[in-house]
């Protein structure tokens, strides 16, 4: 028997934790003679039959609502406290589904019996949280779409009744926000010990998505701005204005963390189209200030998903943002707009920062500033990407990067756009169905990068068994079979969800944190695992990537 020496530091008042680790040394790289790190579990075996199916109509299509093909998320967590992680899938037009984990990668659809069904509106993101700190996970669903229908956009809060059922209480808790929502993020912004909620929303005036105008940006509309809700015990109070967080952008994700290392939680918001990202630094007085211009040298142009985690084991968290640059040469030319040098200068001169149309990887220098290494690290081009997840998949002690990929319709395709323009100029009528048929649709494989250390990553799609082409959007990880490694699940567009078993055969440590009465899950806790040569660091936040939330259990490879 070989023993590992490690120490734990939990920084969050006083926290206890349940610790699980393997008591024997694992031999070999993969379990059960597996050939790859991941094995796909087919739907016939898992019983997961969920599809995010979207059908455009004359009133609601990508021309009137470009985010029609932006996909939806999912949340993982143990909703019945039986020790197995369950899955809640969100559908845009499809009914949401809750699947109970019955072990051995078999799941059961309990949506109707659990009363967690949702058949109305246009759902987008979802997170699992403990809203009332009773030790049972609740489900918060974000809404968008539904132009002109505030009721159809009201977010839903399914509160766990501890008996296998849920009750919708969004209005009761003051969290039935009517904005065009993407995702919600727990944060203790005022250091009072309880968890507040930051909601990323986006604008609906898509006809203005190419305009560079600070005047237009400052014309705040309540339903399109991100929102900050303060936890007041039995209800939440909107404090967006007094916190200085009103904005007008196309927000697609956020990351919570201490970006300037002063002990207070900050907020990074990834904004789509030409609106710049924001790095809201906590001013320690209930307000925030956007300091992105002084802390990052440049940003992604069409920022999609984000994640914030320590990639090089220096105990500082690093940031990734995704864009739409294709690795394939043909796709990079066909699906990319022409270069506009003057347009770029206009953005810079208007204070929109220096935006470039690639993924970005920002290494934390520990002094409140970041150094961007995307090109050096080899992760800049992953096509039309959505969810980045920074986590150690092979349990070697270094966090890897997964990126979900693919858009159902390549509506940026220049050949398609030129044809539509030609027909319009020549007054050639086309039906909606004809237009839709003209737009190319090409599935793409997801990306995964193995962390080699020293800011270097190795693209490992084939080696790790993720070659399946899909249209993947929201993604999450959890140890569904309790074997000490993190499995993977994706919400796919117009295609069945994908579930992958992790075959890692390496030693591990798992921590299930228990927090104080006003933060039962220990959200925001910092955990350091040390051995003789290095320190691993993780911070517990579950809303990550894109429209999704991951497991609450921290997993460390040893």
Beta-strand fraction estimate: 25-35%
Mean pLDDT: 92
Integer-rounded radius of gyration: 22 Å
Helical content class: under 10%
Q: Profile the largest sheet.
A: 4 strands, antiparallel
Q: Classify the fold: give the CATH topology.
A: Methylamine Dehydrogenase, Chain H
Stretches with pLDDT under 50, minimum 5 residues: 1-17
Number of strands: 40
What form results from the Cα inertia axes? globular
CATH superfamily: YVTN repeat-like/Quinoprotein amine dehydrogenase
CATH class: Mainly Beta
Question: Going across the major beta sheet, what is the strand order?
Answer: 3-34-33-32
Distance between the termini: 15 Å
CATH architect. name: 7 Propeller
**Discrete helix count:** 9
Structural class: mainly beta
Number of domains: 1
